[in-house]
Structures are given as C-alpha cells and as structure tokens.
Amino acid sequence: MRYEQEYSSSQNVNKRLVKDGFHKKLTGVCAGVAKYYDYPRIVVRVAAIAVLIMLPVATGVAYVVASVLLPENKYQ
C-alpha cells in the first residue's frame, strides 16, 4: 500500500482560505486551515485545543470570528 495525502501538494494559483464543510467537526474552520496550509487535520485540531486551554478567551473569540467571516467551500 502506498500512503497518499488527502490534499495534493501541488501549488494551486487560486488557493483560498475557506471553511471545509465536508470534513468539519464543528464549523469547518480547523479543516479549512489544515487544507490551506497542507497540514493533517488532526494536527490543527489538537493545536487549536491546546491553544484554547492556554488562552481560552482569545481563542474562542478568534474561532467565532473565523467561523463567521470565512466563506463556505462551494466545491466539495
């Protein structure tokens, strides 16, 4: 078996930061950030939880603002 990442590593000219509605757990912000920066989703989610524990108010506000301002991915 060959391991392949779910998101391709090719450079996309129209790369945009959007919420990933297909792989979302809550609103899709962490999945969208993971796709944009080409990181595994679990790493971004664990980092978000760690930062939420250390800085709960700032992280909570940032997550709510990101979930409101980031557009939903039209192409699933």
Structure, described:
Helix content is 49%, strand content 0%. Helix 1 packs across helix 2 and helix 2 (41-54) crosses helix 3. The longest helix is centred in the middle third of the chain and has 14 residues, at 41-54. The two termini are 26 Å apart. The protein has a domain at 29-69. The protein is mostly helical. The mean pLDDT is 86. It has helices spanning 29-37, 41-54, 56-69. The radius of gyration is 13 Å and the shape is globular.
What features would you highlight for this structure?
about 80 residues, mainly alpha, about 0% strand, globular
Short structural description:
49% of the residues lie in helices and 0% in strands. It has 76 residues and is mainly alpha-helical.
Tell me the distance between the termini: 26 Å
Point out poorly predicted stretches.
none
Derived structural class: mainly alpha
Shape: globular
Strand content: under 5%
Oligomer category: single chain
- H/E series, N to C? HHH
State the share of residues found in helices, binned by percent. 40-55%
Largest sheet: none
